[in-house]
Specification:
The protein has about 100 residues and is mostly beta strands. The chain is built from 1 helix and 12 strands; from the N terminus they run αββββββββββββ.
Amino acid sequence: MRYLVIALLMWTSSAQAQNCQFAAGQAQCGSGLSANGNGATTYWSNGDVSQRFGSTTYNSDGTSFQSYGNTTYFSNGTTAQTYGNTTIFSDGRSCQRYGDQLFCY
């Protein structure tokens, strides 16, 4: 669930930094957004639900993304490349993961 949460948080977050803590299949973020994973389904505190089928994740808001290797393609045209603990988005945003902490800029 961690990579699903990283991808979704970065795609749905505003230009503000999004800092999150992961523990036992859950994510808590400084913005107040949280998520709880159950298998291929992620439940968000704002009422949204995400379901993964193979390499594609569908969100209840009608958006989706596909992940292949270290590249993620979002339905809004944005892409993301992950290298080790760093994810860089085509719109200039980035995230760095340190253990169970996620820092996005």
